[in-house]
Amino acid sequence: MLNDSLRHMRLVRAALFVAATGACAGAPRRVAVMPAPATREPLRIAVIYPDTADVIQSHDSTFLFGNVGVGRGDAALSINGQPIPVQANGAWIAWLPLPDDTIARFQIVARAGVGAEQRETTFVARIAPHFRPPLNAVAWIDTTSFDPGDSLAFPAGEGIRLSVRATPGARVRLRIEGHGSIPFAPDTLPDEPAWGVRAFGTDTAAYRLPPARDRYVAWLPAQLVCDAIVEVIVGSDTARAVWPLFVDTLPRAQLPVVVLNDDTAHTGKTDSLTVGKAVPYGTYNWFFPLGTTAVTSGIWGSQTRLQLSRNVVAWVNSADVVPLAPGTPPPGGHVGSVRLIAGPRSLVLHVPLPSRVPYQIEEGDRTLTLRLYGVASDINWMQHGGTDPYVTRMGYAQPVADETTITLSLAGPVWGYRARWSGRDLLLEVRRPPAIDPRHPLAGRTIVLDPGHPPLGAKGPTGLWEPVATLAVAQQAKALLERAGATVLLTRTDSAPIDLFPRTHFAEVHDADVLVSIHANALPDGVNPFVNNGTSVYYFHPRSAALARALDRALVAELGVRDLGIGRGDYALARNPWMPSALCEGLFMMIPQQEAMLASPEGRLRYARGIANGIEEFLREMAR
Fold it and tell me: Which of these, 32, 38, 151, 351, could form a disulfide with 426 (CB 3.0-4.6 Å)?
């Protein structure tokens, strides 16, 4: 399409300009200096990404990066005839258009000296296939676009949104044996950009796409559906295809009761939590501890829907769901009087319940609200158990008939909390903020630093592996923080792989005041790295936003790259609620200049200083 071609040309020109100048529009003035390496390897052509096993998930443009040998900044490089700048250390990155095919061939030529060395290779990359209408077909159906295409089950009376791509201007319907047909209507809204562009792209012009004239939508009432046939009719021509959809109905009066267990396979690898999502396979929103009971009200592939209350549902992994004996009553009843018990480092709210009902903890600046689903309030008394100054007031409310909220008003900011079952009681433990000296905010504090990865981890153009760089940065930051009086622990001290939960559990067990995870960034396919690189920091819980902001400011000041800002991200290392936590993406591993910083002692020290300064400023702000 013309618009796509113009966009390709603009992006390629922008990429070449940035690579040639080493500058990024809007970046801070302080930029990294890349010294020429002391060693110089023979000329070669190495493509680090994509690997020959990778399948590019973009159909527009893609990035390639690699090197022509350490120290070969004297080389001239071209890909498909386009000149690609080479950095002093031999690294390069390119942003190139893709053919409308499943195979892309990149002719790469490297030359050095006058009439001297030359290397040439054809790099072949695979592209994820996408649907193309058959030649000369009047009516057609994109069978890769069926949404949903899964096994579903819902109570009768509910419905499912369907979407499919087919010939523009056609008449589209779904024929269901024994139930007639369901008509489709054209989807008149603008097309949706790729998830990577929406999540990580900074150019909002990429969001503004024209309407997809070939997309149709429909509403399917929950009913028995098996081997439904979609028909696309254009004049006298009709295209037909079987929709891979199976729908069953659930009897609303006999919905099964289940208990949640995240280790039904008995592997021993458990964090005793089942996460709940607002949509199937979605982002995390609820955290249900082992033993929570609920009513199931739907199935979507490998996801099970829990009916938390009359108007609230959560989706969980079906593997975490264990059916209880038939006839087990649904969880619910009344919540009785509650008591707060104060301790030296935390306060514990004891909430008596008739069963282990689902719940959610909602965090405000100086409030914590416990929302209990499926219960009504019978709270006669709310005992403070003393006159502790941190919890200034307790209150409850009944916002709807089957949801009760209990709110704790605090004298200071929320620092951390956690909840667990003890028999029938739900225990909400609220952490006291640490006593911080504003003149020496790091003195006496316990900081846990997490060097990101392995397993996995990004690689840069010269092959630098992210876990190697992040561990080096963490060790330098540890030394800086300890010099200022903090106790600093690392979640790993070597390259042995560590899963995510043991890292956050480590921080909780050691009662960390702050947890910071250190990473080096990379982008998904289809996002231009030349205009979307820089520093970013992510948080999950509201109280951690101030930590993320302080880290971002300090890192930008130290590293001198573009400020991509802070964001709320669904990252495991930022989700532990016992302490403020954040995940830093200080530099981009895939950008040659930034990889060189991560490889150099000076660059690692600057990243480490940004971490240390950000944590110190956050604690100083909290002290005030």
Answer: 351
- Specify the DSSP class assigned to residue 542: G
d(CA 387, CA 427): 20
CB atoms under 10 Å from CB of 253, counted, come to 6
**Three-state SS at 572:** helix
Residue 21 sits at φ, ψ, to 5 deg, of -90, -20
Q: Which helix (H) or strand (E) holds 493?
A: none
What fold, for 333-431? Immunoglobulin-like (2.60.40)
CA distance 543 to 361: 13
DSSP string, 395-434: EEEEEETTEEEEEEEESS---EEEEEEETTEEEEEEEPPP
What confidence tens digit (pLDDT) does each residue in 203-253 have?
Answer: 777 777 888 899 999 999 988 888 899 999 999 999 999 999 999 998 876
- Taking the CA atoms of the chain, what radius of gyration do you get in angstroms? 28
The H helix count followed by the E strand count for the chain is 7, 41
Output the pTM of the full model: 0.90
| H-type alpha helices, 195-238 | 195-200
Q: How far is CA 280 from the centre of its chain?
A: 15
Say how far apart CA 176 and CA 172 lie, in whole Å. 13
The CA distance from 318 to 300, in Å, is 9
Ranges in the chain annotated CATH 2.60.40.10: 2-127, 141-250
Topology at the third CATH level for domain 2-127: Immunoglobulin-like (2.60.40)
Closest CA to 275 of 259, 257, 287, 265: 287
d(CA 232, CA 219): 17
User: Parallel, antiparallel, or unpaired: how do β-strands 171-176 and 180-183 relate?
Assistant: antiparallel
Enumerate the CATH 2.30.30 domain ranges in the chain, comma separated: 255-323
Confidence label for 144 from pLDDT (cuts 50, 70 and 90): very high
Domain 141-250, CATH class in plain words = mainly beta
Q: Quick count: other Cβ atoms within 10 Å of Cβ 128?
A: 11
323: pLDDT confidence band, cut at 50, 70 and 90? very high
Question: What residues does CATH 2.60.40.3500 cover in the chain?
Answer: 333-431
**356 contacts 292 by C-beta, under 8 angstroms:** yes
Q: How distant is the alpha carbon of residue 607 from its chain centre?
A: 23
Alpha-carbon distance of 280 to 83, in angstroms, equals 46
What's at 401, amino acid-wise? A
For 188-214, the DSSP string reads -SBPPPPHHHHHH---GGGG---B-TT
Cβ 386 vs Cβ 395: under 8 Å:
no
Rounded CA separation 468/457 (Å): 9
CA angle centred on 374, ends 395 and 299, rounded to 5°: 140
d(CA 143, CA 193): 20
Bond prior to 326 in cis (omega within 30° of 0):
no
pLDDT for residue 36: 54
Pair 498, 492: CB distance under 8 Å:
yes
**8 A C-beta contact, residue 369 and residue 362:** yes
* 345: Cα separation from own chain's centroid: 32
Class of domain 255-323 as given by CATH: mainly beta
**DSSP-assigned letter for residue 319:** G
